[in-house]
Amino acid sequence: MESGIPGRIALVTGASAGLGRRFAGILAQAGARVALAARRTDRLAALEQEIRAAGGEAIALALDVADVGAVRAAAAEVEQRLGPIAILVNNAGVSRQQRLEEVEEADWDAVLDTNLKGAFFLAQAAARQMIRHGIAGRIVNIGSIAGERPLGRQGPYSISKAALAHMTHCMAREWGRHGINTNAIAPGYIVTEMAEDFLTTEAGHRMVQSLPRQRMGEPRDLDALLLLLCSDGPARFINGSVMVADDGLLSA
Ligand SMILES: NC(=O)c1ccc[n+]([C@@H]2O[C@H](COP(=O)([O-])OP(=O)(O)OC[C@H]3O[C@@H](n4cnc5c(N)ncnc54)[C@H](OP(=O)(O)O)[C@@H]3O)[C@@H](O)[C@H]2O)c1
């Protein structure tokens, strides 16, 4: 089945590490022309080289998604250097381990501005381009099981991911008429830098043992879902879905 991905312009945030790095590589492999966005530009430059060496096309963009002005400028830069955005993967995210009573305003802002505000305004900038150019775009928001069931000591993170899921429904409802499909992936525990420190702790070991199959996922476990949601024909009818990929955790 044709994916419709080859030649499409994709923007992936948080492409400097973890899931975002993997998503960018997979989209490039599928033939997308990929803009890689994050704050650590040295890492982006390395990934850009890697993608080019494998015959793909990529550009690196310095971006702090919590800065709405920078978000708008980055979307405009992608349009100017590559063309209008057809695929957006809103993946950049941060978390803080804190009890609710310890959360300061700065903690709240750091998590909500990155995970929610940045994702909203980048999707808006991308959707404006899609609408203007009549592109049947694909927006994939990276949520979390924390958006479905709160995680302990991660209140603002859980709240941001629950709101991101609802944002996905709002976007699907309003932008569907323009041919844009907006969906979310809500992963369970996947081994990346975000989880690495925690996994070396006693609590981390206990957590893995408590998982339904006593194992964490790997970034590649999300490849198929990502490609499906970024595709054209195969995902035509999928709009407003929050797809959980958690190895059965929420069902346990
Ligand atoms: N790993 C898991 O188990 C898991 C589970 C559920 C959901 N998720 C979600 O998946 C996404 C990726 O997580 P991950 O595990 O890959 O985390 P990670 O390894 O810590 O990577 C996070 C990425 O987000 C970027 N980022 C953070 N703040 C940013 C900002 N202000 N502006 C631009 N980029 C920013 C980082 O890049 P720079 O630091 O270079 O800017 C980095 O590339 C997140 O949204 C996370 O909530 C992860």
Task: Please tag this protein with its features.
252 residues, alpha/beta, Rossmann fold, 7-stranded parallel β-sheet, globular, binds NADP nicotinamide-adenine-dinucleotide phosphate, NAD(P)-bd_dom_sf, KR_dom, SDR family NAD(P)-dependent oxidoreductase, Sc_DH/Rdtase_CS, oxidoreductase activity, acting on the CH-OH group of donors, NAD or NADP as acceptor
Please give a structural write-up.
This protein has 252 residues and is an alpha/beta fold. The chain has a single domain, classed as Rossmann fold. It has 8 helices and 7 strands; from the N terminus they run E-H-E-H-E-H-E-H-E-H-E-H-H-H-E. Strands 3-2-1-4-5-6-7 form a 7-stranded parallel beta sheet, with helices on both faces. Strand 2, helix 2 and strand 3 form a beta-alpha-beta unit. It starts with 8 loop residues before the first strand and ends in a 7-residue tail after the last strand. The relative contact order is 0.15. The model has no long low-confidence stretch (mean pLDDT 97). The site of NADP nicotinamide-adenine-dinucleotide phosphate (NAP) has 28 residues, from helix 1 and helix 6.
Task: Name the helix and strand elements from N-terminus to C-terminus, one letter apiece.
Answer: EHEHEHEHEHEHHHE
How is the biggest beta sheet arranged?
7 strands, parallel
How many helices? The count is 8
| Poorly predicted runs | none
- Tally of DSSP β-strands: 7
Structural class call reads alpha/beta
Which CATH architecture would you pick? Answer: 3-Layer(aba) Sandwich
- C-alpha end-to-end distance: 34 Å
The general outline is globular
Q: Indicate the percent of residues in helices.
A: 40-55%
What order do the strands of the largest sheet run in, or round the barrel if closed? Answer: 3-2-1-4-5-6-7
InterPro entries: KR_dom, NAD(P)-bd_dom_sf, Sc_DH/Rdtase_CS, SDR_fam
GO molecular function: oxidoreductase activity, acting on the CH-OH group of donors, NAD or NADP as acceptor
Family: Belongs to the short-chain dehydrogenases/reductases (SDR) family.
Pfam families: adh_short (PF00106)
